[in-house]
Amino acid sequence: MKEIKLIEVKSEIGAGTRGASLGVDAIKIAALDFGSRYFKKHKSVEVPNENHLLLESTGNAYAKRISGVLTMAERVSEEVSKTLKNNEFPLVLAGDHSTAVGTISGIRMAFPKLKLGVIWIDAHADIHSPYTTPSGNLHGMTVAMVMDEDNLESKVNKPDQETLNYWFQLKNVGNIVPKITYNDLVYIGVRDFEPQESFLLKRHKVKNFTTAEIRKRGVERVAIEALQGLDHCDLIYVSFDVDSMDSSISKGTGTPVANGMTEREAGNLIARLMTSEKVCCFEMVEVNPTLDKENLMAENAFEILVRATNSLLND
């Protein structure tokens, strides 16, 4: 039986909307409201954050607060790597999705010789770079960081040298570049992307299971095919952004998008994915209680978290 370790990352400096750093505590409150001992049962560690930077200027226009995101990536990668080397299963609860660069780096640092596959469950592709970003928010660039993707063909911005130096360092966290290739990536639920991102997804024929496909073919089938698409990988990391769920449910997140999964579909999907022996890490991000009523998003997120954990422990 796997020993689970919760890694709490209350960081939101990669997001454009404030409040995601409160997501972890909102999930804990949901657990209390449900009378659950979940957070008592599993050991946890909190990674120190850099949210004080929110009170300062955003700095680089095409990569806001990038120095802080780099610091967080290094801290998270160390913690994830240490957890895996200790033979524990890292279950990461984070604010904004930029922390995933640290998570993926940490997995690669722990297992440099193994091939890692990524299942990215999100409304967004998160594959912008400082050269293409419309917002400058780094949580929209995480996949590009781990793939060493600048997408210069679609360049619209002229980032300054300082930005590019930090960007280079972010792609190099853990000294493994790239950490994954296009072949090692499967998207589920992505439906909101810019032309620069579409260009990459089409060119590299990246698999994206849409909500319509999930409805038509069923969660079970999609989960099986997503895992089969990563058959060539030794390990799999599952990254779950709550905005992959429909905006009618996911009001409590910074960038809600219509036509997403229901809470039940998301829960079934993740529960099924977690039964794979190859899954070595699960991350849940972007719960933002300040945008919510009655802590609903966190309650949904907590129920999914419990299902993921139960699948993992084969309860």
What this model shows, in words?
- This protein is of the alpha/beta class and 315 residues long.
- The chain has a single domain, classed as Ureohydrolase domain (Arginase, Chain A, 3-Layer(aba) Sandwich), CATH 3.40.800.10.
- 37% of the residues lie in helices and 14% in strands.
- It has 11 helices and 8 strands.
- Strands 2-1-3-8-7-4-5-6 form an 8-stranded parallel beta sheet, sandwiched between helices.
- α10 links the parallel β7 and β8.
- α1 packs across α11 and α9 runs parallel beside α10.
- 55% of the residues are buried.
Essential attributes:
315 residues, 11 helices, Arginase, Chain A
Largest sheet, order of strands side by side? Answer: 2-1-3-8-7-4-5-6
Helix content: 25-40%
Helical/strand content category: alpha/beta
- Detail the poorly predicted runs: none
Based on Cα principal axes, name the global outline: globular
Number of strands: 8
The proportion of residues in beta strands is 5-15%
Helices and strands, in order, run as EHHEHEHEHHEHEHHEHEH
The whole-number mean of residue pLDDT values reads 97
Query: What name goes with the CATH superfamily?
Result: Ureohydrolase domain
Terminal residue distance: 10 Å
CATH topology call: Arginase, Chain A
Task: Please identify the top-level CATH class.
Answer: Alpha Beta
Query: Which CATH-level-2 architecture?
Result: 3-Layer(aba) Sandwich
